[in-house]
Amino acid sequence: MANLIVTGGAGFIGANFVRHWRKVSPADGIVVLDLLTYAGNPANIADVTDVTLVEGDICDTDLVSKLIADHDVDTIVHFAAESHVDRSITGPDAFVTTNVVGTHSLLKAAKSAWLDKGSGKPHRFHHVSTDEVYGTLEPEDPAFSETTPYAPNSPYSASKAGSDHLVRAYHHTYGLETTTSNCSNNYGPYQFPEKLIPLFTLNALSGRNLPIYGDGMNVRDWLHVEDHCVGIELILRKGRIGETYNVGGGQELPNIEVVKEICRGVDAAFASNPDLARLFPDAPAAKGGASADLMTYVEDRKGHDRRYAIDETKIRSELGYEPARDFPQGFAETLAWYLSNEDWWKPLVERAKIAR
């Protein structure tokens, strides 16, 4: 039996991990530490049994130390982060504070509890990071591996690179038992509707434009969040201490193809379920039109990386990781979830005025 702190566990990936871990390890203790900013939502884990939700800041080292002591925590799984690239361009300070200073705060508390005052029992600090720390790839470049030099190009990716280096340093300098994973673009249930897939799905349902950056040919590797959670579980159970593992979905697609898949999926859903026209009357598909008519091209994002791709050889060969879904299957599951959970996403869209 383990006792975990999951930082950012009310956010998108963190909440999916909490749900996954409770399913595979029902006896383990789980404390979710989340500041509940705009992307944190208690509803994401409200139906998960025996989870303690603490509203608090990872920068509060004293709070983290108290939680480790009070709950006899031996594992920290660190998801909490500012993660939206567009927001990092207009407001980078929050990214440095949360992603760099916050990670350091957690590391200090973990070191104090497990090494300075600890009994020497096994422990784990797992840090969840991004493939964006590696920079950008040309069309013919090999995919990112764990040995690819860091070359972050946005304030977001630079702040995540800084946190990765701190985790590495705490292992090599102090002996803290750490692992790190660098993942590709996640999608799936409970994703806050500012990211491409939920934003464009919900825009298509409401008849709003689908604004595509540049020429739409920026390439990403798409990873269903549940496959990501399986990868993290494997790292926690079998990963080598001090190591980094890249976790990808093996689905390298240009953004324009993702948008077209969203449009196809929405239109097909309306064709097979006439009730959707009543629920979402502003959708082009409700009026016999095509969601693709909403596609527009807008000025490219500043510093927009052209291509990301993940080489998952290490986690496949060492830990037996294999994603269970290709993109069409994963998106079909995701679309079905959003169509069935309007009560979850509609208040978020209305409150934050995300859809545009």
Automatic annotation (TrEMBL):
One example GO MF annotation: dTDP-glucose 4,6-dehydratase activity
Cofactor dependency: NAD(+)
SUPFAM superfamilies attached to this UniProt entry: NAD(P)-binding Rossmann-fold domains
EC id: 4.2.1.46
Family: Belongs to the NAD(P)-dependent epimerase/dehydratase family. dTDP-glucose dehydratase subfamily.
PANTHER family given in the database record: DTDP-D-GLUCOSE 4,6-DEHYDRATASE-RELATED (PTHR43000)
Name listed for the protein in its UniProt record: dTDP-glucose 4,6-dehydratase
Organism: Sphingobium rhizovicinum
